[in-house]
Amino acid sequence: AQSVTQLDSHVSVSEGTPVLLRCNYSSSYSPSLFWYVQHPNKGLQLLLKYTSAATLVKGINGFEAEFKKSETSFHLTKPSAHMSDAAEYFCVVTRGYGQNFVFGPGTRLSVLP
Amino acid sequence: GAVVSQHPSWVICKSGTSVKIECRSLDFQATTMFWYRQFPKQSLMLMATSNEGSKATYEQGVEKDKFLINHASLTLSTLTVTSAHPEDSSFYICSAREVRASGDFSSSYEQYFGPGTRLTVT
Description:
In chain A, strand 7 (56-58) and strand 8 (64-68) form a beta hairpin. The mean pLDDT of chain A is 91. In chain A, the strands form 3 sheets. In chain A, strands 2, 5, 6, 10, 11 and 12 form a 6-stranded mixed β-sheet that branches. Chain A has a 4-stranded antiparallel β-sheet with strand order 3-9-8-7, with no helix packed on it. Chain A has a two-stranded antiparallel sheet with strand order 1-4. Chain A has strands at 3-5, 10-14, 19-21, 24-26, 32-38, 44-50, 56-58, 64-68, 73-78, 87-94, 102-103, 107-112. With 113 residues, chain A is mostly beta strands. By secondary structure, chain B is mainly beta. Chain B contains 1 helix and 11 strands. Chain B has one helix at residues 105-108, and strands spanning 4-7, 10-13, 19-25, 30-38, 44-51, 57-58, 67-73, 76-81, 90-98, 112-113, 117-121. In chain B, strand 4 (30-38) and strand 5 form a beta hairpin. The radius of gyration of chain B is 14 Å and the shape is globular. The model of chain B has no long low-confidence stretch (mean pLDDT 89).
């Protein structure tokens, strides 16, 4: 079975400072991993995905994530936070094509002026 | 590309009535669509997987007779909440997986999400 842990339910950073949102996964198979962002009362937007290619994945809006198999982690980072980054972030794991998505509990990112 | 729409975006209904939510893939064909439910400040919970032309597969604990799913075409799936009650109030989100015969397999894992439907039952 697969599972996803997002270690922080809430992260607060100041505008212009780095962002780190942590994600650890458990999977019996080589996983595919995703990060999605959800703004209040909105649907989900894909930030980036890892599907067994390069371990350092670059996404939209300056976000990137690194797949570390030895640590079973897929942490999301951004060098400089913007006010518009304030939202809920979900880490997702799937076993592969045709398999369901397993969502993490989410991390709420607050960006302080 | 890969846009998924939901209609309505929000709906208020009285207890005991039924509500239908539509999920459409606008620019691609989707053999599989998924329905999720999200409670306030919580993660998404998969309710069911909908395959075009066949019966939906429901997750454990989800009432099939209460949440009716129909996936009659490659671009449309519907979720009908029957005899709605206040505890059914929630944010319902659908997603769709594109049909890919070959090629970019990295995209084959992806689900494209709709904007969600806010259901309030009074």
